[in-house]
Amino acid sequence: MQLEKIPFADTHAFHPFFLDYIQQKESLRPFYNRFPTSGEFKRQITDKQAAFTPDRRTTLVEVLQRQYKDVTTPEAVQGNIKALTNDTTFTVTTGHQLNIFTGPLYFIYKIVTVVNTCRQLKEKYPDYTFVPVYWMASEDHDYDEIKYFRLYNKKYTWETPQRGAVGRFSTKDMAGLLREVPGDIQMFREAYTKNKTLSGAVRHYVNALFGAEGLVVIDADETAFKAGFRDVIQQDIFDNVAKKHVDQTTQALEAKGYKPAVNGRDINFFYLGDGLRARIEKVGDQFQVVDTDISFTAEALRELIDKHPEKFSPNVILRPLYQEMILPNLAYAGGPSEVEYWLQLGGVFKHFQVPFPILMPRNFALVLEHAAHRKFLRTELHIRDFFEDKNYIYNHWVLQHSPRNLTVGKERTDVQALFEVLRERAHEIDTTLAAYVAAEGKRALNSLEKIEHKLVRAEKRLHSDTLRQIEAVKDLLFPNGNLQERTDNFLNFYQQDPQFIQRLLQHFDPFDFQFYIFAYEEPLANPA
């Protein structure tokens, strides 16, 4: 597998907000604790070691052991769960929705990032143990975002009438979809047929894919975890603490020219029940569960928080805090939007006296299987050219390969010089005449631009076959105009190359913040 890397900025796929974080711009420095370099982790370890109590470790291990009770786990996973009882063991975490069949490629990239981060940290700090963790977004209720995936240019969708927290969904009606998906999907077939819930199924196949690497999967939809979150629930619902701190940070970011990713609400919790996850709002003296007939007085709600904290599910503002209170976590690996909204949460963490984790941008990649790589090479373009829009790519190729001069750069310079002389001559006679000459000069330059446009367009017609080939490569690498990693499923490569994930583990460097380009130089042995 051939590897090339290009700077994030050259992809034109990332917000300035994210790029400024990667480049450690001073403007963002007040909004995070430590930047993700391996050397920064020692101080992070010290902070987390002091803040994370033994009783939280005990609860964590007890819950994980119960969640893994019926899962056949490799020794590496069992050892890591047991190691979490020790105050020298820490986690590096990523989280994601429970997309069917893993969803888009970057789900795999996220997990590879945390596995490799733990490997490198172990080499640098051998006296400590580092456990990679995948946090299942089991309480998320956005079924529309998880119900489909794209394989071999076809979209596969799981249709179910179920609603509420997706982790609780039954997998019974998955049978029809399992019959449709091509290739070897035995791992997923077992996951969806041997587990009653979507959370159980996801844990099953993630364990099959990454268990050998010691990856621990956690489902936070647990009463024991929520019990330790009671104080946060109370302060948010009755005092609106989170919104106050998020609003302050949002205003500070906006003052520096950044557009914040999320907005805090007065109440940042959902009411969670069977088939239901709905926002809680205060309406007069009552607390209403939106779009339901459920409501509470303040007294009744306080009692519910005390007796049944599992009925409350944090939204995007407080889920990160919930995670960091459950886990002895050092760093969170996420994509651009995740990094951006975490940067809004520093004040919330400070208020609750929880160490703010190091924010690790996940690894990013584009993969060219052998046939796509051959087609790409025939275009004689650089891979970074394909991150541009199609018309730019066509013009760039034509200007590079035409034997004729299609640009009017020299003529533009000559015309500008000519009209500048005329403008100065006119100014000596009549200042108003100088403005007229300048306007005529601008019209002449516009005419030159039109001529250049027509020259290039005519030349493109002479190379229509080649440009169609370039378009085919562009569409192959950027399906529906999107980054491949946000669209295609990993089975596009894994079914043909069972070593695909191992190759990613070998080549990805979690501390190298660039966009990776992988190309198969030889045909795959097991074509689908």
From TrEMBL:
Keywords: Ligase. The keyword Hydrolase does not apply. Residues 365-518 form the Bacillithiol biosynthesis BshC C-terminal coiled-coil domain. Pfam families: CC_BshC, Rossmann-like_BshC. Belongs to the BshC family. Transmembrane segments: none annotated. This is Putative cysteine ligase BshC. Its EC number is 6.-.-.-. It is an enzyme of class 6 (ligase). Residues 1-363 form the Bacillithiol biosynthesis BshC N-terminal Rossmann-like domain. NCBIfam families: thiol_BshC.
